[in-house]
Amino acid sequence: MSVKAIVGATLIDGSGKKPLTDAAVVVRGERIDAVGRQGDVEIPDGAEVIEASGKWLIPGLIDLHVHLYSSGFVPVPTKGSEIAYAGMVAYNNLRQALQTGVTTLRAVSDRDHIDVAMRDAIERRQIIGPRLFVAGIGICMTGGHGSGIPGTIHEVDGPWAVRKAVREEVKVGVDFIKLLSSHRTDYREFTLEEIEAGVDEAHAHGRKCALHVANFVGTKMAADAGVDTIEHGSFIDKETAEKIAYKRIVLVPTLWVKNHIPERTKKAKLEQAKTGIWNLYGRDLEQTESWFEGCVEQLPNTMKLVRSKKVRIGAGTDNVFGDQMFAMLPEEIEWMTRYGMSNMEAIESATRVGAEAMGVEKALGTVEGGKFADMIMVSDDPLKDITALKRVGWVMKGGEVIPQHPEWRRRPIQDPQETV
Q1: CATH number for the 3-59+366-401 domain, one of 2.30.40.10, 1.10.3720.10, 3.40.50.1820, 1.10.10.10?
Q2: What tens digit of pLDDT does each residue of 65-98 get?
Q3: pLDDT per residue over 365-396, tens digit each?
Q4: Residue (of 218, 230, 132, 133) closest to 181 by Cα position
Q5: Residue whose C-alpha is closest to residue 89's, from 106, 61, 64, 66
Q6: Are 138 and 172 in contact (CB under 8 A)?
């Protein structure tokens, strides 16, 4: 079993504690064996020593909201098998995320269970990628959000139909369940009884339940039903925020994409693009623009409210745009600080809170003994400059330093630190 020792870095361990200077982290195999200050931690004989003086070491980042494949990633339709091409796009996205320092992804529904296949290929070491937690195919009401996209959604009505769809995804082997219950309107989609059925069925099978919901009526039902994570949650009132905090529901606000979409819609209108955004035009494009402008206007109030109520906030990107690189988590973390979170809080959101949201906090999310050795290194202090996370210089997943690959175009890591 290989043994490595990373020495000299300033450690931000993801717990929120004060950084540890001149740290030593011993890695045995794929797990962290010991953490402490140099001199207090014994470096085993024969260990590979990675000198990291002047660097900052933090846990690998966790993106709680991604889609591995979307037609939006493919501006020009491919010939031949779309699903085969989709697999290659998803694989490239996975490798790019890992290169950027994202060592864990939560895929919140993907076409034809591509996410399940990718997860299994990574676990079997057939491909290189982040740890992957997958929802398989999402579940919405007839005509609800997500409907109309082939192979990506169960359209069902009634509590027992929701339960059946949950069971079908459990049969496939997903890690959690994704329900969708609001579009770009102020109205509900699923009833409370349908959401409760989905949550209960997911929990009965040992799965957590994520709910795509943004409007006031939807977030209230999400809190009442006791979902595990609220995806987006743009509009939340005081009573709902208090209930979310009390039930320890994690909010994944996807701030970057909400601010990015209005920019795209404005550009589409200026260029008089025929298809605008997501093949929308005319009234649909106007509705989309208006909705996301309202989101951006509301976000400062929502973020201030949930932070005041101590709601746990996780980091997720929800990027499905072909002209944006897949790995946008550093941008999401930066947006968190723009909405009032401290740099330390934003880092916790993308590490410890992410692990808690998935129920894997005993294995991931912080740098401490017994957990998987997922870590990244940067040259600048991210507590002073959060954009330091855009310049990751070294990535370790499961005790293995990640090498460079020519396909990775986004923020390529530098040569691994020299060993002594």
Answers
A1: 2.30.40.10
A2: 999 998 878 877 788 888 899 999 999 999 989 9
A3: 999 999 999 999 999 999 999 999 999 989 99
A4: 218
A5: 66
A6: no
